[in-house]
Write a structure and sequence with these properties.
This protein is an alpha+beta fold. It has 13 helices and twelve strands. It folds into two domains: about 180 residues, no CATH class; about 120 residues, no CATH class. The strands form two sheets. The protein has a six-stranded mixed beta barrel. The longest helix has about 45 residues. The radius of gyration is 31 Å and the shape is elongated.
Length: about 400
């Protein structure tokens, strides 16, 4: 019997049990769809984050709290609150520094009339506009006078405006919002910048850092400090100067770990890409478990099929079919189930990735290599988990098979 005849017989056997075949493919479909969707979302998140970090400019430095020692116990990076406004004053003295913006934030409920929304409230200074290249859609940004006077004024992102008023183009300038029962007058709305899928500056409220610390947070520590170097060529000089000044201010002894961390855009990009790639691999690995379960399901159903078709196998062998013909037929059935399930899973994965991208407002990306790997892995599962049932069918004695009731 030739190969095409084996395929024809296999397809006929699968069509005879359509519901069983569909249920058998379900594990493969779910597994492949999940892997494809996770890879697409992960690639899209990586690309989005990369674009946003690069869009901040090549001369941005970010200073974050680093390791701290308390009672002999060392905390992790970012676990301490070692940054203060005194550090900001020291950093401003650097000759390679263009602007410095302290930054602190927290999530609060924001109320305007009958409308309310949860949003990130960020405290900073007038320098934030320069450091982060903020552009205004309407109104103005906070000023040094606002910071010095603890003014209760706020600049809203367009998403906040939409959430509060239902229309991103609504005139909200001059209106008063309440955050933690503290009234803030809206003085400006920023231009939309989009989301990276995890955080969006469009869903942010910016207020003077002095007001946020005193009225909302009740503490004067900083989340981070953003620094704009005078030029891209002076980035390393600025980074070295900042590190030296802060080590003096924080009294860091030689050979001891700094309680802060200075990162440039390349460092941040590498860190974020590493996080998203690790997350993608983790989620993809979890989704791959479904493929393993799907393979076990195929083997289980094929074993049931071999038992049900014992007399058929006996008759075919009695009229001249060889063991390799029986082996090939059942192996093809298993591979067809896997490949069909993989094809459907790839299509569903594309759809799921697209819908997730729309929900997260980012473009997902699925490479042809990922599709080919998923398709090839599906076929491999059919071969691996189909070999045992196929060998069992091929090894049957025709006389014993014909006696089977």
């Amino acid at each position: 019997m030739n190969f095409l005849e084996s395929i024809r017989l296999s397809l006929r056997a699968l069509r005879a049990n359509k519901l069983r075949s569909a249920l058998t493919m379900l594990g493969i479909i779910i597994g492949v769809a999940a892997v494809i969707a996770m890879v697409g979302i992960g690639n899209g998140a990586t690309a989005s984050i990369t674009a946003r970090i690069q869009g901040m400019g090549s001369n941005l430095l970010t200073i974050t709290p680093g390791q701290s020692n308390s009672g002999g116990v060392k905390g992790g990076v970012g676990s301490s609150t070692t940054l203060s406004m005194n550090d900001v004053d020291k950093i401003k003295l650097g000759t390679a520094v263009k602007a410095v913006a302290p930054f602190t934030d927290n999530d609060f409920q924001v109320v305007l009339g009958s409308g309310n929304t949860a949003s990130q409230i960020s405290g900073t200074t007038e320098s934030y506009e320069v450091v982060k290249n903020v552009t205004m859609a309407s109104g103005r940004f906070i000023t040094k006078a606002d910071v010095d006077s603890n003014a209760r004024v706020a600049v809203l992102g367009p998403t906040v405006v939409t959430n509060l008023m239902g229309d991103p183009n609504a005139n909200i300038i001059g209106q008063v919002i309440k955050i933690k029962d503290v009234p803030f007058q809206v003085i400006g709305v920023t231009t939309a910048t989009g989301s990276n899928g995890f955080q969006s500056s469009d869903d942010m409220i910016i207020a003077p850092i002095t007001t946020v610390q005193a009225r909302l947070l009740g503490k004067k520590t900083l989340r981070n400090i953003l620094v704009s170097a005078s030029s891209a060529d002076l980035m390393q000089t600025a980074q070295d100067d900042i590190t030296l000044e802060m080590e003096k201010a924080h009294k860091i002894q030689a050979g001891k770990a700094d309680d802060f961390k200075v990162q440039n855009q390349a460092d941040m990009l590498a860190t974020m890409q590493g996080v998203t790639q690790t997350l993608t691999m983790l989620l993809g690995g979890i989704a791959s478990i479904s493929l393993l379960v799907g393979g076990i399901g195929i083997m289980n159903i094929m074993l049931v099929s071999v038992t049900e078709r014992t007399r058929e196998i006996g008759i075919r062998k009695a009229i001249g079919a060889k063991s390799k013909d029986i082996l090939l037929q059942f192996l093809i059935e298993a591979v067809v189930l896997s490949v069909l399930g993989g094809g459907i899973g790839i299509a569903l994965g594309y759809g799921g990735s697209y819908l997730a991208g729309n929900a997260l407002t980012m473009n997902t990306s699925i490479s042809p290599t990922s599709v080919l790997l998923a398709f090839g892995f599906s076929a491999a599962i059919g071969i691996v988990f189909g070999v045992f049932p196929a060998r069992k069918a091929a090894a049957m004695d025709p006389i014993d098979a014909l006696r089977y009731e």
